[in-house]
Amino acid sequence: MIETAGLSRAQLRRLLRERRRALAPQRQRQAARRLYRQLAQHPLFRRCRHVALYLPNDGEIDPGLLLDAAQRRGKATYLPVLNAWPATRMVFQRIHPGEALHLNRFRIREPRPNRARQRKVWTLDLLLMPLVGFDCEGGRLGMGGGFYDRSLAYRTRHKYCRKPALLGLAHECQKVDRLALASWDVPLEATVTDKAWYAADRKMMRRGQLHRDPCGACE
Ligand SMILES: Nc1nc2c(c(=O)[nH]1)N(C=O)[C@@H](CNc1ccc(C(=O)N[C@@H](CCC(=O)O)C(=O)O)cc1)CN2
Ligand SMILES: Nc1ncnc2c1ncn2[C@@H]1O[C@H](COP(=O)(O)OP(=O)(O)OP(=O)(O)O)[C@@H](O)[C@H]1O
């Protein structure tokens, strides 16, 4: 496991991105299958009706099998869509199997913006987030654009809001000893890797319940 002491967020991001990009295609496929096995039968995934995922980029662990399973099971599936530059907003838009995609400004595939198919993030049940790095306490390091942080900023105002459940997805080799929380960081309920679940509240997590109380303002 990487020790973060003495490393800046930028240095850590570079190191961890190199690590995940270095995984051979066969290792990536194996990790994706293992990730699927970790999550597909978990109550948080089984019960969710509206789930946002991502299409893998830059060596990220691939949630494609979960996307297929969610669609087969009749769940509504969403992908992140960036608003046109210079806007810094990211929204979640429903995606159907076989839908045409284009490349966004970071060359990540996403659906063409269509307001009618977008859903407010706090009305989703489950958000599966791509991680660059993570710790065992819900700490998360992303690509550094602040897109997920800004989308989730409402959670710092409504601390007891439990929607959506936030699960980070990562390769095991992206685990670090400790990530300092910035004031805008929203902790994850858990991170799921190809090997294990890392949750601050393990018992609740196994039962598929979240440790937060419902927030009336956000229901
Ligand atoms: N698969 C996936 N989709 C996603 C995200 C993600 O992390 N993974 N995002 C999560 O936020 C958003 C895109 N965020 C990004 C933020 C920064 C960079 C970035 O720094 N990219 C370049 C350098 C910048 C450039 O080309 O202008 C790089 O690769 O270094 C990429 C994506 C939306 N979609
Ligand atoms: N709620 C917010 N409002 C405005 N700016 C924000 C907010 N949250 C984060 N940011 C900005 O986003 C930038 C990136 O933050 P950080 O380094 O934590 O990225 P990250 O968590 O790795 O990225 P991401 O959220 O895209 O996965 C920071 O410079 C911060 O100022």
TrEMBL record:
Lipoprotein recorded as keyword: no
Alphabetical keyword list: ATP-binding, Ligase, Magnesium, Metal-binding, Nucleotide-binding
E.C. numbers: 6.3.3.2
Names of required cofactors: Mg(2+)
Gene Ontology molecular-function annotations: 5-formyltetrahydrofolate cyclo-ligase activity; ATP binding; metal ion binding
Binding positions for substrate per the UniProt entry: 55, 60
One BP term from GO: tetrahydrofolate interconversion
SUPFAM superfamilies the record matches: NagB/RpiA/CoA transferase-like (SSF100950)
EC main group: ligase
Catalytic activity: (6S)-5-formyl-5,6,7,8-tetrahydrofolate + ATP = (6R)-5,10-methenyltetrahydrofolate + ADP + phosphate
Signal peptide limits: none
Positions annotated to bind ATP: 9-13, 140-148
Entries under Pfam families matching the protein: 5-FTHF_cyc-lig (PF01812)
Entry's family note: Belongs to the 5-formyltetrahydrofolate cyclo-ligase family.
Name this protein carries in UniProt: 5-formyltetrahydrofolate cyclo-ligase
